[in-house]
Inverse folding.
């Protein structure tokens, strides 16, 4: 049986710029499920990480136009923003696999499953964009998620604390609100896609919580106490409510963490 170096293959998928080809590489790696060996050499070519297409145009967040949902174009712009988040999420899952060595093997298998589910989410949204007469790349987008990945590229604990547990956890809060807006605008197909995304994202955030606490135990650190220090050090955004407390609890947040969030908000 051929041994598959899961981290090396994750890197090759990460630097692939074509969304279709990137999706296929992730699917192949996920379905192969062969034994794998540890990669000996990583490929820190920052110019190639992550691979992404020429479009969408990446602009500062304040330059992304906000459109009402009363038009097809407005709904498409919102779906496009969600698709861009999911495309970034594919890259984030692949990046945490190749960038950080010496973690238990189940760490890499877990994030591969996340990458696969993010591929599913991205393609559901991209296909729906096609139904609306648009495509991924039709609108400008911003790079807030990947900016935090760059800031935490040298510290796996910070990456876990501030990407899945902070930025991606915001999706648990926002998803029901966005779903309701799309449903009220008559786009029930998009609302159904958001149901799938919310279901899966609970598991993704839970995986981040699990490994964050695992690392804290290894280093004899209090996971609740050190989080504000990392949020300050890496300039994490202050989260605003309302918070989806049931989803956050299912995703592994402790009640005292939710109290702290409310106090900060």
């Amino acid at each position: 049986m051929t041994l598959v170096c899961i981290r090396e293959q994750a890197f090759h998928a990460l630097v692939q710029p074509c969304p279709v080809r990137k999706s296929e590489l992730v699917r192949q790696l996920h379905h192969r499920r062969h034994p794998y060996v540890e990669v000996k050499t990583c490929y820190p070519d920052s110019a190639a990480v992550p691979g992404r297409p020429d479009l969408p145009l990446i602009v500062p967040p304040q330059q992304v136009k906000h459109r009402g949902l009363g038009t097809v174009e407005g709904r498409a712009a919102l779906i496009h923003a969600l698709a861009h988040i999911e495309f970034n999420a594919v890259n984030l899952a692949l990046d945490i696999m190749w960038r950080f060595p010496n973690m238990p093997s189940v760490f890499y298998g877990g994030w591969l499953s996340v990458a696969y589910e993010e591929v599913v989410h991205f393609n559901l949204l991209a296909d729906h964009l096609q139904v609306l007469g648009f495509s991924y790349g039709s609108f400008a987008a911003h790079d807030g998620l990947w900016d935090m990945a760059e800031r935490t590229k040298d510290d796996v604990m910070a990456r876990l604390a501030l990407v899945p547990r902070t930025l991606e956890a915001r999706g648990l809060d926002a998803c029901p609100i966005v779903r309701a807006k799309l449903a009220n605008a008559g786009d029930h197909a998009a609302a159904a896609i958001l149901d799938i995304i919310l279901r899966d994202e609970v598991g993704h955030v839970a995986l981040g919580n699990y490994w964050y606490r695992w690392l804290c135990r290894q280093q004899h650190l209090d996971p609740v106490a050190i989080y504000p220090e990392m949020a300050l050090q890496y300039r994490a955004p202050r989260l605003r409510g309302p918070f989806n407390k049931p989803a956050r609890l299912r995703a592994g947040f402790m009640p005292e963490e939710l109290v702290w969030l409310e106090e900060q908000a």
